[in-house]
Amino acid sequence: xxxxxxxxxxxxxxxxxxxxxxxxELEIDTRVARDFGGANVVAHLEEHDLPIADPARxxxxxxxxxxxxxxxxxANQHRCRLFARRHGVRVxxxxxxxxxxxxxxxxxxxxxxxxxxxxxxxxxxxAVATFGQGMxxxxxxxxFAYGSVWFKVPATVRVRVEGIPSPRATAKDLxxxxxxxxxxxxxxxxxxxxxxxAVEALDLAGRITMASMATEMGAIILFPSPTEExxxxxxxxxxxxxxxxxxDTDAKYLNExxxxxxxxxxxxSRPGHPxxxxxxxxxxxxxxxxxxxxxxxxxxxxxxxxAARILEGRTVAAGVVLKVVPATDRVWIEALKEGLIEIxxxxxxxxxxxxCAGCAEGQVGQTGPGEVTVSTGNRNFAGKQGLGSVYxxxxxxxxxxxVAGVLTAAHRLEEVPVQVAITEPIEERAAEPAAVSAAARxxxxxxxxxxxxxxxxxxxPVMEQATEPAEAPGVEPVAEPTAEPATVIEGGVWVLDLDSxxxxxxxxxxxxxxxxxxxxxxxxxxxxxxxxxxxxxVAVGDILVVGANFGAGSSRQHAVDCFKALGLGAIxxxxxxxxxxxxxxxxxxxxxxGDLRGLLHTGDRVRIDVxxxxxxxxxxxxxxxxxxxxPVQLSIYxxxxxxxxx
Length: 646
Known about the structure:
By secondary structure, this protein is an alpha/beta fold.
């Protein structure tokens, strides 16, 4: 039987049998730690006295806070530099730009290769047929030390994009249309191969835009169909000739889905949820305070050209701020040579050094309370880019909206009255407040090929009070295990009845520079209204019961470690974000699959058998079935974590 693209790449990097759902030991060609997570990778390696398997294939990239404007990031960068000097590891430092783009430009990855990074958008490399994965710091430490990681072979969904978009639609709009169709978890745990005339017309920058938002659909990775032109562009970019792998003609797919984009017009994602996609025309005329053009999704030279075409001869509206951040230093220099930087400056934009910018909340791009911005990034979770509200859109829409002072499409710029100044008080603006709803939106399941809009938004849950007060837990880190952990766990229940709770809600990105476990415990669930005092109430050994796609979003290990530090006994959920699931497994935090909402309530006490896959409610001895731990998960759990002695 033939293989899909992801199966072919995995098969070439393992000696194990490659079948969908099988666990394999995957050889990693290129391993990267960023300034986000890098210091924790170093800490794990030093704590366990682990070697570097191959320094020539191991790198640091500093892109979250290249301005050094945060002491935590600055300290973490310095620790990584010192480690790199001792071990002969190369650092692509604060002047180089976004790591996933740098490795493409430097030829460190290419078609059919494997790549891991502490960047949750490492799967952006699907744009160049590389199997890229964002992972937590435990996984990356393992890859640094052993050159491999465990991985479950994903099923693949084949997506056929039918129709021809309008000339006004960009690669970002095409990508948002996929997100609108699949929602936050429509491709959960799957790879996707995307084809069709509109996809094949994309240049390399457009393919990067599309691949960069696979994570927002729950996908492991997304491969836009290969073209000779894209292959030529990559060869010129990296300086070496590349060949594009293709799936076998008789490959077996989990599902085949059609998405209709005939006549597609510009789209927007509304604040708080990337998958809450609507036509731009639905919100046209809404005032904006700022705009951001950049990120790994839209920081390429072609994106800047698109924005400059609209800004040339125009100026940003009074009272509006436009921030432009090229993805890499190479892009910055080319933009300077072409005169794009001059156009941006004459239009009144702030142009910053290359990097992640506002997406990482560590550089230019922040929003203040009540501020409304239109961003070309890939995420707009509550608090992700500051305390304001963030719309996601294309560079053309962001540039046009900055000029008009209101949301507008580029082709409508001459017809929309310019917002001269913002005169209404900030507190009276219709923008979503800083404490926006924590509710997540469900997407269409992959078993349903027809397009389906995001589910109706629900209000933020209020934490239920336990029927019996829990013991005061404190926030002391759990002591290192001295014996094999128990496979039967007993504790009190906390029910968080929400789907697609992202890692910013679990552990906000303003605390990413924290490396101390005791401090991490203080911030668990702190970005969900009604759950801010969870660390004060939860008892050691308690059980968190959650909905579907828990842990969507970033690769931050903090979102697992904060629960470990609290001594949480287990998390039971209908499903989990792919990166979050493996981060929890690697940290020996029991993560168990089963939808027990409505069957268990806050205050219940339960007994879990992780080997049998059962949950017993102690009040009435009712037993519920869940998925038992897999052999790999159980092995890591029993030895106390991925990096514990084998």
